[in-house]
Amino acid sequence: MLQTITSSLPELFKAGFMYTIPLALISFAFGLILATITAVVKLIPKPEQAVAKLGWGILQAIFGFYVWLFRSTPLLVQLFIIFFGLPNLGIQFPAFLAAIITFSLNTGAYASETIRGAISSVPQDQWEAAYTLGMKTPQVLARIVFPQAMRIAIPPLSNSFIGLVKDTSLASSITILEMFTVSQQITAKNYQPLLMYTIVAAIYAIFCSVLTYLQHRLEKRTSKYIAKEGGMN
Known about the structure:
By secondary structure, the protein is mostly helical. The chain has a single domain (2-232), classed as MetI-like fold (Orthogonal Bundle).
């Protein structure tokens, strides 16, 4: 058993650092960008002009449908549609790119609600004060709203990222050689499924424990100014 563990660990960690972690990082980065855009589009009121109001309403409806669609369907089904289904329409992606697209869209849909809630928590009078000073909406968002909203959104977004790391195991279903796929391949050779799946579960637990530690450090770093302000008051 010890020999099996020592021989399989390098392969599993190699798959983790070559596919699992990069897949999670890239997908989360794109998903976060998409989530921010979605949240802003859904929050900004429609313009007064009739044409602009109609166009913005359509845009909000499109993003609303996107969020509903990806929050209402299983991630595995989304992977299969993008990797196995779209080729029937002449749209084909390599497995790694298909996984990034799927995970990014899925993360963006869920994270958009987190960011929307965080932005909404910023008091309305801060928006009004900024507009009084002559700031435009992009300036208000960048200088006043986002810094406060991100501090609020960090814990749930960190949890989403940790969940995404574990969800990358689903990429094995579309032939990506991430950790779970490698563990299956090793199992097919040594016929020790319990041992191999326990090992890969332990590696996932190590990765997620490190990320949880980093999450706590980040939360402390971003909230220390609140503590100072509270002490001064």
